[in-house]
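Q: What would this complex look like in 3D?
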Amino acid sequence: MSTSVRALIDLDQDLAAAVSEERRDAARRAVRARTRTVERGAWDAIGEYGECADWMGLLVIDGFLSRRTSCGEETVGEIVGPGDLLRPWDHDGEYPVVEDITTSWQVLEEITIALLDAKLAARLAEWPALTAAILARIGRRDRWLGLRLLVSQLPGVELRVLYFLWHLAERWGEATDGVLRTPAPLTHEHIGELIGAQRPSVSHAVGALREQGVRRVPGLGWEMPLDTPATIEAMLEEGAFVPSARP
Amino acid sequence: MNVHNGFAGREIGAGRGPGAPVPARDIGGGVRAASLLDVLPELGDGLDTSTWRKARVRSLVQIEAFEPGPWIPHLTRRAGRPQTALLIASGLLVREVELGERCFAELLGGGDLIYPWAPRTGASAPEGRWRALHGGTLAVVDELLLGRIAPYPSLTLALARLSARRGRFLAALAITRRLRRVEPRLLFLFALLAERWGRVTPEGIVLRLPLNHELLARLIGTRRPAVTTAVGQLRERSMLTQLPDGWLLASDQTAADALDLPRPTAP
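A: Here is my prediction, written as C-alpha cells for the whole assembly.
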C-alpha cells in the first residue's frame, strides 16, 4: 500500500471544472486529499472504513473494483471505477425485512482512492461547488446502476453481454486500432454478476459474440469493433439473437 | 435468503408520507422556499438545539412542486445544472428507462436525492423519463444551499448519506433479477419497499403505493402478464393481496414459504 497527499482537483481533473480558473490555485492549496492504493483481490472495505461515517467518501482515482451484493446464493455486482464515490460504511442494517443481504468488495485492478475524510469534508464545506460536484458523482453512479438493471432484463445473454461491454467501454474505455476496449479485466463470472446471468451462459454468449469481433484481451479487458452499436441495434430488432447464432 | 417482519411494534417509512405538505413560503418571483430542516427533519439529527435553530434559519432551500402524471424536471426562474440535485420531500416518482421493448423502473420517494440533469454515462445510454404517482414537493440542493450550510458539515454529510442510499436500494433490487420465478421476485421487491413505505397492521404490512402490474413488472424485470399470474398465485396463498389503494404483504413465514425456504426449527 502506498500513500500520498495531493490536491483533490489534480487527482480528479474533472472536479477542477467545478472551480473557476482564478480560484483553482487556492483550491489546490486548501483541498488536499490523502490517497492510498489497494491491491487486486478481496478488499475488506467495511472492516477498514466501517467506522468512518463522518467522512464524505472514498473517491476512486484509478483502477476498478466490484461491489458485490449477495443474498443467499445470489450475487449481483456493480463495477466501480475512476470518478466514483464509495461510502462503504453506509451498509448497516437498512434492510431489516430482508435478512442476509451482504456487501463485499473485490478489487479487479489495483485501485487508488482519495480519502475524503472528516477533516477534508470540513474544508470542502468552504468550496460548495466542489462539494456539489462530488455529491453528483453518487447520482452518476445511480444512473450507471439503473442502466445495469435495464441490461439485466434485456432478452438474451448475448445482447446483455454486448450492450454491457460497449457501455463499459464508452464510459471508461478507449478507442484504439479500430476497436473500443474496456478497461477492466473482467472474467465471465464477473460479467455474469454484472448482467444478471450465470457464468456458463456468459461463456456461451462470449463464444457466439466472437463472430461479432468481441474478444478478451488477456490481462487487460475486452475489445469490440467500433460499429458494435449497429450490431446491438440489429439484435434489439431481431429479438436479441446474433444473426450467426440463429439456426 | 430469509424475509422476515422486522417492523413489529413500530411504524416505518422514510421522510414524509406521499401526500404530506411541506411548510414552504413565497419569497418573491414565484419562488417558494423552506428550511431544509423542515423539509426533512432527520437531516438535523445529531445537532444540538441551539445549532439546530441556527441551521434551520440558514438552510433555506428552494421548493418545487410536482403534480401526478408525466414530470419533466424544471426549476422556477432558473435552469437545472448537472450538479443540481433535487431532494424529494414528499410525493412518489417513477423513473423509467427503455431499451428496445424492455423498460426498467425505479421508485423514488421522500428522502431520495435525484440528479435529473446529470449527464448520461455514455452516448449509448438511453435517457430516462419521469412520472409522478403522487404529487409532491422537491427541495433544490445546489451549491447555493451547500454554501449556506457550510458551517454545519453534518448536514452535508447527511445529504451524502441520502445520495448513497438510492444506490444501495438499486443494488438490492438487482437481486430480483437473479431469482428465476416471478413470485419470489415480487415478494423480495415488496419486502424492500416495505422497509420504506410499509406500515405494520395486525393483518400484515400495508403499503399505500399505487403500483399496478405493469409497473411491478418493470421494477422486477419481467412482463406484465407474468406479474398478473404471480399476484394471483400469491393471493391464493394469502401472501400478497392487492388493496384498493395499495398492497398487503403477509408475515415473514409465509414469505419464506414462497421462497421455498425451510421453516426455522425451534431451538
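A: To summarize the key features: Chain A has a mean pLDDT of 88. Chain A touches chain B through 68 residues (CB under 8 Å).
Q: Very helpful, thank you.
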